[in-house]
Amino acid sequence: MRTSKKTLRLLLSSLVTVCLVLAGTTLPASASPTDAAFDQAAGALNVDRAAYLSKHDIVYNRPNTNPLYGMTVGNGRTGAMVWNQNGLTMQVSGVDLSQQSTYAAGLVNLYSNPGMDTGYSSYQQRLSLYDGTLTTKWDSNRTVTIMGSPNSEVMGIHVDDSRGGVSSVALDLSMWDPNTVQNIADVPDLNTWRTISTFASNGVAGLSRGQTDANGFGYTLAATVEGANYSVQVVDGRKVRLNITPTSSYTIWLTAASRINAPNRDSVTQARNQLTSVKNAGYAATFTSYKNFWHDFWAKSFVQYSNGNRDADYMENVYYLSTYMIAAAGRGNYPAHFINGVFRATQDQSKWSNAYWYWNQRDVYYSFFASNHTDLIDRHNNLYSRNYNALKAYTQTRYGVDGIWVPETMGWDGNARGTVNSDYTKNVLSTGYEAAYSMYLRARYTNDTNYLRDVAYPFMRETAKFYSAMLSHDAATNTYYMANSNAHETYWNVRNAITDLAAVRSIFPLTIQVSQELGVDSGLRAGWQNILNRLTPYVVQNGAWQPHQPPISQTRNGENVSAELIWPYDLTGIGHPDYQTALNTWNQRPFPYGNVWANDAVQAARLGLGDQAYNGMKTMLQKYQNYANGMTSNTNGVFEYLGVHLTAMNESLMQSYNGKIRVFPAVPGDSSFVGKLTLLARDGFLVSSEREAGEVKYVGLRSQYGKQATVVNPWGTQQIRVRRASDNAVVATSSAAEVSFPTAAGTVYVVERTAKPLSSYASARLTGTANQGVKTLSNTASSLGMGATPGNPGGLVNDTELTYGANWYHTTSRGYGDYNDDTHHSTTVGSAAQYTFTGTGVEYLSERNGDMGNVDVYIDDVFQANVNLYAAGARQAQVVVYRRTGLPSGRHTIRIVNKTTSVGMVDALRILP
């Protein structure tokens, strides 16, 4: 029998696979460069999502007692951060409970006698992204699963405890000292947020707050039990308790019921009704519904972003974790606030709670266009569209203009108090454009003509009218210009802010186009077009756009405002005539990765700079992702850098902003890089593609609305064909740089090389193996998860776990430790820090700066090296300043001794296996 070359390749591939499995090697999720995972019937990648996403689960293999490292779990409207303290403790929050989500619901503590966290030999806490659950296991006889009723305010705690001898179980709902609460939310009456009322009757215990808030906010945190006998009691003015008769399996249901969403603003009755409803439905049915909710969510899109050294895999892990965290808070009546959200463990202490900052909110939400979750985008857009009338009225009052101006820092009801009382924001004019453009994009991605007509276009029109009135006209040159405004928060009271000129150049053509499509406002188009034709040009110096007309004013913030044209204003990028100017502008930007909301990596992707986008994502994680749960200690933001990360990865894998679909426009040059995607393009095309070993295999499109498609040829000028998957009919062929073709709604198309069509690849299904431990980002202090013991091989050792001599100081504020605010430093000669570990090597991580000196490093009391921590210029993010490998397997001690009166510092250690 003769064996074909293809069959031989498959046999050899199978043999290699068997050998690797026998050797204990974990197989990558991508099968090989000869395989493809495109399902031509479904028009999407074939993925075993349960297995694939399990490799991105966050796992703690030892109890975490630090609330800031608490695991995050939520159902879309209510969420909790969970840690180990007298059993399990969590801070519960809800997105609609208070103005800008400022005030959280309270604390929940589940405990027993003997404690669940006593007398055990194994422990694991797992955040399962696919199911949306947080499961904590002690040995094989105690499991607590936190889940929820999908897209509601109700969460559940299911307990399986088969131990004998458990004498009592209790759940406490409590509130911290209300006297510490400050008016950081601009609420009309602070006293109602300092007033706690408690109740315990008819099987429900709870506490309420904010019950007389004039804006209708406030909430009730309440709980009940299914599957066990129990009693309820009021412990004191801030605590209620459920006393549960121990049994092997039961469920505690809790809700953070908001007044704003309750009939008659009665959150107590709402809480009781919600708990009764979920209890009647039962745990089994609710849990199934909850898991299906998350399974359907993940089925909407897919990305793989991996490489040989696993750093890209770490970034992919952050992608899925961040998507979960934002979605778990993103389905309320109001958007998830960029710094409050529903995940925090700081009681009511937060920053920037008086408003929603548009710049920060866009960072949180904009990735969900491409990831096919426009229902989440609606939560963001609705904040502005629902305040249409209030914004129009205020614009008339403030400016005497018939149009819409949107305050950069806007309250829940459209109020501008946070903007007009701040020099940073009071003259920012471009936010209304951004809000209008986001609404336009929502219509483009969904082909929703009703939304375009009733929501997006009115906002676009009013934005264009506002700018028409605010621009000045120079009769001598017959040009329009912006006489005075802020170039966002960084340059105040300047002439011709680039953000305003760019806003006009973006929104005016779109508004003219949509008004023509809708057949409305024909009398306004000529005026808009005249302004466009005669708008003053941007100023270019040194080949780059300037933020406003020179001379450049004093810098007030760290934004790269000229690069806004690249993203999110979408006015330039790959293939644009002004590409070189855009590239120069990005290269000369004054504040690279300057804050937790920096979007440099997204802009790098839009410019096709694959290595820079990759390194930019890594830089942002290195600087800001410093908690094992994926979160940050930076008090200027919590969720923005996660949202920027999502957008940067989406834009690196697929772009459609200029009417052309590009796959893999900005991937790193690393030959080991593997990229795969199913993402949504504008006009409703679900795009799939795979890239491996430097080769793009195909481009698959599922047309949802029958629009014209234009695909940039990923193989340059190689001949390509467009094949309809249902009958293999070739609908177009081309050797050009791009191909355009009509589509039919609900139809799948494949763009493939004529010389190497999709059929030349073996069929594959993408899968993965469940994560069981800590993940680390190389040469950084960033990690996800916790090992079984501090300093376990491969694990990150936070500076707080070291032992310090005299005169070492722990800093939690900005200054020392800008890139990880939890850090130890000393300015005393001879002061030492040490740590004992098990492994064959160790990395010592620290920042480097001009105020720092040098330290001596000892291993097992033997001098190893003098390490210079001084660095000229800007402060450097955490770097590996010393690395020792090749130690005998076993226990060792590293000692770090400060040698000068300049700063010696320890940020973290990484133990090498």
From TrEMBL:
Signal peptide: 1-31
PANTHER family in the record: ALPHA-L-FUCOSIDASE 2
Keyword Kinase listed: no
GO molecular function: alpha-L-fucosidase activity
Source organism: Nonomuraea jiangxiensis
Name the record gives this protein: Uncharacterized protein
SUPFAM superfamilies reported for this sequence: Six-hairpin glycosidases
Annotated ranges, domain Glycosyl hydrolase family 95 catalytic: 303-634
